[in-house]
Design brief:
With 207 residues, the protein is α+β, with helices and mostly antiparallel strands. It has one domain: Ribonuclease T2-like (Ribonuclease Rh, Chain A), CATH 3.90.730. Helices cover 28% and strands 19% of the residues. It has six helices and seven strands; from the N terminus they run H-E-E-E-H-E-E-H-H-H-H-E-E. Strand 6 and strand 7 form a beta hairpin.
Length: 207
């Protein structure tokens, strides 16, 4: 999957933030799957969603001194809600509808980094077939339905590299999730992200 999303580097202008996000997260390695960007498709032409949660301590451990979010004591934070295809590939940049300033303002608190709002909408939200308010409302709703396991919430000191243990903890904390519906991402041998595969109505499904 396209991994150009992440935590905002501290004190950098927006254009450098975007470039840093692209560089940093494209270096990630997905433990459970490898997916391919198939480019633009008609909005709404996809099979399911991936709700991606960044493990901020893991990201910060591999990019020390680069992010303002590293001082906030965050655990898991929303990375994005991504339309996905059944073969594991995914569409991107499906429309040119831009966010209004009021929409940016309304949803700036949804992600760990406000800079992700415009990026996530352009790259993934435009492929959902939804208008921005409905897309971000869905991301928020799906996020609220996921229970972060004990020890991985805000203020967590865990720096675990055991992706299998984190995956098991998520399954235990969320009985509705299936084992084949949760995937992990590693960077430099450390867990940096967990992905949860959901139907368009928010139910668990295999990735």
């Amino acid at each position: 999957m396209e991994r150009s999303r992440g935590i905002t580097p501290c004190g950098r202008p927006a254009i450098f933030v975007a470039a840093a996000l692209m560089s940093v997260l494209l270096s990630g390695w997905r433990a459970d799957a490898a997916d391919r960007d198939v480019g633009s498709r008609p909005p709404g032409t996809f099979d399911y969603y991936v709700l991606s949660l960044s493990w901020v301590p893991g990201f910060c451990a591999t990019h020390r001194g680069q992010t303002a979010e590293c001082s906030k004591g965050l655990g898991f934070a929303l990375h994005g809600l991504w339309p996905q295809l059944n073969d594991g590939d995914y569409p991107t940049d499906c429309d040119v509808v831009a966010l209004t300033q009021s929409e940016v303002r309304d949803y700036r608190g949804l992600y760990a980094s406000p800079s992700l709002i415009a990026h996530e909408w352009r790259k993934h939200g435009t492929c959902s077939g939804l208008q921005p308010p409905a897309y971000f409302a869905l991301a928020s709703s799906d996020l609220r339905r996921v229970r972060v396991p004990a020890g991985y919430g805000p203020g967590s000191m865990s720096r675990t590299t055991d992706a299998a243990a984190v995956k098991s903890a998520f399954i235990a904390a969320n009985p509705r999730l299936s084992l084949d519906g949760v995937r992990t991402v590693l960077q430099r041998g450390r867990l940096t992200e967990i992905d949860i595969c959901l139907t368009k109505t928010g139910n668990s499904r295999a990735c």
